[in-house]
Amino acid sequence: MDEEIIDKLTEIVGKDYITMDDADLVAYATDVLPGGFKKPDYVLMPENVYQISEILKFANKKKIPVIPRGGGTSELGGCMAWEGGIILELRRMNKIKKIDADNLMAIVEPGVICQQLNKEAKKYDLVFPPTVPTESVATIGGMVASNSSGLRSAKYGATTDYVLALEVVLADGRMVRIGKAVYKTSSGYDLVHLFVGSEGTLGIITEITIKLKPIPKYFATAYGLFDNIEDCARAVNEIIKSGITPAGLEIIDLPSQKAVNQVAKKSRGKLSEVSFPEAEGLLLFEIDGHDPDQVKRDKQALQAIAKKHGCKDIIWAENDEERERMWLARKSVLVVLVQKQPTIAIGDTILPPSMMPDIIRFMQNAGKKYDMDVYIVAHSADGNVHYMIPYAETEEELGRVNALENEILNKVIEWGGSISGEHGIGHHRMRFMKSEHGESLELMRAIKQLFDPNNILCPSTIFPE
Ligand SMILES: Cc1cc2nc3c(=O)[nH]c(=O)nc-3n(C[C@H](O)[C@H](O)[C@H](O)COP(=O)(O)OP(=O)(O)OC[C@H]3O[C@@H](n4cnc5c(N)ncnc54)[C@H](O)[C@@H]3O)c2cc1C
Q1: Pairing outcome for strands 126-127 and 42-44
Q2: Count of CB atoms within 10 A of residue 204's CB?
Q3: Residue whose CA is closest, atom 51 of ligand 1?
């Protein structure tokens, strides 16, 4: 270990906020990527933007990799030190600097946890809508860097739709403010949204100005039961075309429902209260709004469309507790699968919504071909279909799951879709970047070179060799 490096880093953050202890390095050697493990050399816990600037100036000079880390819930090895170096643990930077209720905005540090922000915003009847199932761990910095979205994206969009301005520290330590606390601007290049989804490869996000929304007051939430998943997908298409914009429109396949029900039965926590009704195709939908009559009208219209497409039963939540249980069941799908088998290949493919029946069928058939269980859920209004494929850690099974994943992702690219609607690329999916982006990958490389010529920020992520 180089004493000069240790002395300098210790001088910047203070001796209590640097660690090289083996136990700590092991704790930071992985995120949620199955089987991923690579120890960093140092873990630093900076307190403010000035310390981050000093760290980067020094790391850039010495060409030491720096990997920002929020909640560490990336499933793709995005916050792992693949080439060693520094993990920049940002959770000490967790201040909500301002809630501007008049303008529906908030200014936060990157380590603020999504749920923490929503708790504070609720005091003003406001919400940051792009929640993720990991909302009690995921940070706003990590969500911006990954352009996260999910359960409510049908109506409320992705994180990118809420980011107005950023403070970032560039690879050479320069602190830069980009964007403005205004709802739109036509002034110059849109650097803010270049950083959204950049997965830590262009700079460290140290402050975020985001939009908030008023919390809706009325909800109608239901399970729609279908005889097959294709009918479910067709109903979704017509719902979108009808002009109704549900806040949630989630497809859950039968194997996923069964997995949740099995684990819920044995669980002692909140999960023990949930159960899916079990149908070949299940649609969880939610309408929300500020006008009870509008919610009622949308509810009736949506029910009629679902019925037209073969929905045989609709089970409406009678109260808030039931509504929360329905959502908890949905949020638990991956959670229960991981408990059964920690090694799981996870995908979040996206195609135009009308192609959902085709890609779901393709995934199911590919699963049969490789003799692997494929679990499917979808944020269906976006056409964002997730697969989860548990596998044993044997060479033979790893080979099969890789071949199966290649087949699915190559098909998505061939059909004009994208391999990631929300989770990002990280390390695990670098290999598909060339086939998805072709020539434009070179433009991305040029941008990376401009921002980070020494490639110290999150090396071995996004860009294949
Ligand atoms: C069970 C489960 C379910 C999930 N479901 C969803 C889902 O529905 N939708 C979804 O979008 N994601 C989902 N995810 C993925 C993940 O939880 C989200 O992307 C989350 O928003 C990441 O936040 P984080 O703070 O954990 O980021 P991290 O995992 O810490 O970091 C993610 C990436 O951002 C970079 N980064 C972090 N902070 C900064 C910063 N301040 N500046 C620059 N770069 C930074 C990291 O280097 C890394 O590349 C799921 C994960 C799990 C485990």
Answers
A1: unpaired
A2: 28
A3: 73
Query: Does ligand 1 lie within 6 Å of residue 221's CB atom?
Result: no
Q: What letter does residue 216 receive in the DSSP assignment?
A: P
For residue 139, give every residue at least 6 positions away whose Cβ sits within 8 Å of its Cβ, in sequence order, or none. Answer: 70, 71, 90, 91, 94, 110, 111, 112, 113, 114
CATH number, domain 96-214: 3.30.465.10
CATH topology of domain 341-429: Alpha-Beta Plaits (3.30.70)
Indicate the fold that domain 217-330 takes in CATH: Alpha-Beta Plaits (3.30.70)
Q: Residue length, the chain?
A: 465
Element (H, E) at 288: strand 281-289
Assess whether the C-beta atom of 198 lies below 6 angstroms from ligand 1.
no
pLDDT value for 212: 98
For residue 112, how many C-alpha atoms fall within 13 Å in the half-sphere facing its CB?
A: 26
Query: Angle of helix 320-340 relative to helix 254-266, nearest 10 degrees?
Result: 90
Residue 154: how many other CB atoms lie within 10 Å: 24
Question: d(Cα 347, Cα 358) in Å, to the nearest integer?
Answer: 16
> CB of 70 closer than 6 A to ligand 1?
yes
pLDDT tens per residue across span 363-413: 999 999 999 999 999 999 999 999 999 999 899 999 999 999 999 999 999
Nearest ligand 1 atom to alpha carbon 168: 42
